[in-house]
C-alpha cells in the first residue's frame, strides 16, 4: 500500500530549463526499499527531462555537529570546523529545484544518518546572534518531497517520523513540502518490488512535480 499526498499544488518552472532534482537516500542498503523507491521517483523526473542526482547519505562523510553555534551562523558560509561532504551537499541543495528526502523508519524515527545530515545543515541559516533572529535562509522556499518506508504494516508507524520530518523541513528550513510517499509493510531488500503500485506512485508523483508546460 502506498500513500501519496500532494500537500500543495504541483509547481512548474515556466522558463523551460531542465529542472534539477536531487534525492537523498538515508538508508545504508543500496537497492533496498528506500533506494528502489527513490529510483522510481528519479525515473519519473528524468521522464520529464529533469537532471537528477541520487546521493547516498551513508556513503558521505558527515561529521556530527558539535553545537559551537558560532562560525556557521555568523555569515552565509559553511561550517568552519569540519571540511567534509557537507561542503558539497549544501550547495547541491541550494542549486536544486526539488529535493527528495527518503528514509527507512528506524526506531520510530527517520535514520540517524539523516539526523546527522540535518544537524549539519544549520549553516544554511544566517543568524543575527545579538538580536537572536534568522536574517537569511538559503533553503527557504525550496520544494521538498518526503518519503518513508517501514516494516510494520500499520501505516500509523510513520506518523511520528513524518511529523518530525515535516517539522524539520517546514519549520527549521522553511521549505515547501510538495509531496509525500509512504510505504508500510516492507522489511527485506526487494520487498518493495512486490508493491509495484508504490513504485508507480513515486514515478507519477515526480512526473507531476516536474511537469513544465
Ligand atoms: C535499526 C533498524 C530499526 C528499525 N526500526 C523500525 C521501526 O521502528 N518500525 C518499523 O516498522 N520498521 C523498522 N525497521 C525496519 C525498516 O524500516 C525496514 O526494513 C525498511 O524496509 C528498510 O528500508 P531499506 O531497505 O531502504 O533499508 C528497522 C530496521 C532497522 C535495521
Describe this structure in words.
It is a single chain. The chain is an alpha/beta fold. It has a single domain (3-209), classed as 3-Layer(aba) Sandwich (Rossmann fold), CATH 3.40.50.360. It has helices at residues 33-47, 86-94, 112-119, 159-172, 196-209; strands at residues 3-5, 20-25, 51-56, 98-106, 109-110, 125-128, 133-137, 143-149, 176-183. Strands 1, 2, 3, 4, 5, 8 and 9 form a 7-stranded mixed beta sheet that branches. A hairpin with a 2-residue loop joins strand 4 (98-106) and strand 5 (109-110). Helix 1 (33-47) packs parallel to helix 5 (196-209). It is globular and about 55 Å long. Mean pLDDT is 91; it is low at 1-14.
Top-tier CATH class: Alpha Beta
- Secondary structure class reads alpha/beta
Q: Tell me which CATH architecture applies here.
A: 3-Layer(aba) Sandwich
Radius of gyration: 17 Å
* Proportion of strand residues: 15-25%
Query: Which molecules other than protein and nucleic acid are bound?
Result: flavin mononucleotide
Could you tell me the mean pLDDT?
91
The geometry reads as: globular
DSSP strand count:
9
Q: Predict the CATH topology.
A: Rossmann fold
* Cα separation of the termini: 31 Å
CATH superfamily: Flavodoxin domain
Amino acid at each position: 500500500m502506498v500513500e501519496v499526498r500532494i500537500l500543495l499544488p504541483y509547481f512548474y518552472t515556466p522558463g523551460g530549463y531542465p529542472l534539477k532534482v536531487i534525492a537523498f537516500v538515508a538508508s545504508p542498503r543500496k537497492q533496498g526499499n528506500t533506494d528502489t523507491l527513490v529510483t522510481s521517483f528519479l525515473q519519473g523526473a528524468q521522464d520529464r527531462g529533469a537532471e537528477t542526482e541520487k546521493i547516498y547519505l551513508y556513503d558521505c562523510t558527515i561529521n556530527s555537529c558539535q553545537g559551537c553555534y558560532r562560525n556557521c551562523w555568523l555569515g552565509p558560509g559553511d561550517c568552519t570546523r569540519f571540511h567534509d561532504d557537507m561542503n558539497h551537499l549544501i550547495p547541491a541543495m541550494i542549486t536544486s529545484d526539488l529535493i527528495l528526502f527518503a528514509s527507512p523508519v528506524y526506531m520510530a524515527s527517520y535514520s540517524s544518518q539523516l539526523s546527522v545530515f540535518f544537524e549539519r545543515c544549520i549553516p544554511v541559516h544566517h543568524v543575527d546572534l545579538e538580536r537572536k533572529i534568522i536574517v537569511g535562509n538559503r533553503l527557504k522556499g525550496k520544494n521538498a518531497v518526503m518519503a518513508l518506508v517501514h516494516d510494520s504494516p500499520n501505516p500509523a508507524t510513520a506518523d511520528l517520523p513524518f511529523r518530525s520530518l515535516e517539522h524539520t523541513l517546514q519549520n527549521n528550513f522553511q521549505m515547501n513540502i510538495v509531496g509525500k510517499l509512504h510505504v508500510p509493510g516492507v522489511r527485506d531488500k526487494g520487498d518493495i518490488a512486490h508493491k509495484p503500485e508504490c513504485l508507480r506512485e513515486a514515478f507519477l508523483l515526480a512526473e507531476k512535480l516536474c511537469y513544465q508546460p
